[in-house]
């Protein structure tokens, strides 16, 4: 049985700093094979209830792998959450030791959900989806440059655009191959794509960046994405409800899917038209449609049903 010991790890490119609570023990380690072996050798006898690290754009990956390999529970959290927590504690100074200690305190107070080993698959898929987005951005940027260029420069840009388009096709093939490798992921993709308005890329984005889909209730998933109306009341003042926070990449993907669904998905189209007829502003109506589409997808994933088998009451 795990102890009530929490560990915070502040990760940098080549080093990491570890803090253990209670007790206050801390030390610095190199992110090398030997360094990770020493880290595990110190943590295994302690049997921590949870180890927490901040997301660092990939630098945390080898540490995750080492902890998973030895069945040590580990969570990866948004650095902004930890920084806000530090400010609430009045810890404004910033050093590796302070950061590691604050992360350990965050782990003890908040107890974020540990990452499962399946996260590595989600991360790999997310990297492919992100790379596709980067290439699209480069194609758009090069297209803008081409319109202003002349002569040889224009020809060079055209050549680069063709190369980028070929790379885009290769990544889309890799995405499809990656999804089709496992029955579970293929089933998820088929469920999502069965909904009018949801294409392959949106489905892949949801699978990579919203693994909680199907595991939360409608209010939780809406708040997680950032499309749930939040109260802004204080005393006798009743403020306007608004949406903020959440996962911007998912909102962007769902916005495009919702625009298509408002034309070709009878359920979403009827919902949008009813809201507009009731006097709702179009932006408010679109946001409500995004939330409804998300709740439908969440219910379908939870119940493992495709669009043709789906009952609206489940949302």
Proportion of residues in helical segments: 55-70%
Residue stretches low in confidence (pLDDT < 50, at least 5 long) are none
How far the N terminus sits from the C terminus, by CA atoms, comes to: 38 Å
- Sheet-strand content, in percent, reads 5-15%
The assigned structural class equals alpha/beta
How big is the Rg?
23 Å
Globally, the shape reads globular
Count of beta strands? 7
What is the overall pLDDT average?
89
**Quick one: biggest sheet?**
5 strands, mixed
Order of helices and strands: EEEHEHEHHHHHHHEEHHH
Total of DSSP H or I helical runs spanning 4+ residues: 12
Query: What order do the strands of the largest sheet run in, or round the barrel if closed?
Result: 3-2-1-4-5
Count of discrete domains? 3
Secondary-structure map:
Layout: E1 6-11, E2 15-21, E3 26-30, H1 33-46, E4 50-54, H2 61-69, E5 74-77, H3 79-88, H4 96-110, H5 119-148, H6 151-180, H7 183-193, H8 200-209, H9 218-225, E6 233-234, E7 237-238, H10 248-264, H11 266-277, H12 282-303
Parallel strand pairs: 1-4, 4-5
Antiparallel strand pairs: 1-2, 2-3, 6-7
């Amino acid at each position: 049985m795990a102890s009530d010991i929490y560990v915070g790890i502040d990760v940098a490119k080549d080093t990491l700093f570890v803090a253990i609570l209670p007790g206050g023990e801390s030390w610095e380690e190199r992110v090398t094979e030997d360094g990770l072996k020493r880290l595990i050798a110190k943590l295994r006898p302690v049997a921590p209830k949870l180890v927490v690290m901040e997301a660092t754009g990939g630098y945390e990956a080898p540490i995750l792998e080492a902890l998973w390999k030895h069945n040590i529970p580990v969570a990866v959290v948004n650095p902004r959450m930890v920084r806000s927590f530090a400010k609430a504690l009045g810890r404004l100074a910033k050093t590796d030791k302070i950061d590691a200690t604050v992360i350990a305190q965050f782990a003890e107070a908040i107890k974020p959900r540990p990452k499962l080993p399946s996260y590595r698959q989600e991360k790999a898929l997310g990297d492919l989806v992100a790379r596709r987005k980067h290439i699209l951005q480069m194609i758009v940027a090069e297209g803008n440059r081409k319109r202003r260029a002349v002569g040889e420069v224009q020809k060079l840009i055209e050549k680069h655009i063709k190369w980028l388009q070929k790379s885009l096709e290769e990544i889309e093939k890799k995405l499809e191959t990656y999804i089709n490798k496992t029955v579970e992921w293929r089933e998820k993709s088929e469920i999502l794509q069965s909904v009018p308005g949801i294409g392959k890329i949106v489905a892949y984005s949801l699978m990579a960046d919203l693994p909680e889909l199907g595991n939360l209730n409608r209010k939780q998933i809406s708040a997680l994405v950032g499309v749930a109306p939040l109260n802004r009341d204080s005393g006798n003042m009743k403020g306007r409800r608004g949406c903020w926070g959440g996962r911007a990449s998912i909102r962007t993907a769902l916005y495009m899917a919702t625009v298509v669904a408002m034309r070709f998905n009878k359920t979403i189209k009827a919902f949008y038209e009813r809201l507009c007829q009731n006097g709702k502003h179009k932006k408010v109506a679109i946001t409500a449609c995004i939330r409804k589409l998300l709740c439908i997808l969440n219910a379908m994933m939870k119940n493992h049903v495709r669009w043709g088998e789906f009952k609206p009451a489940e949302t």
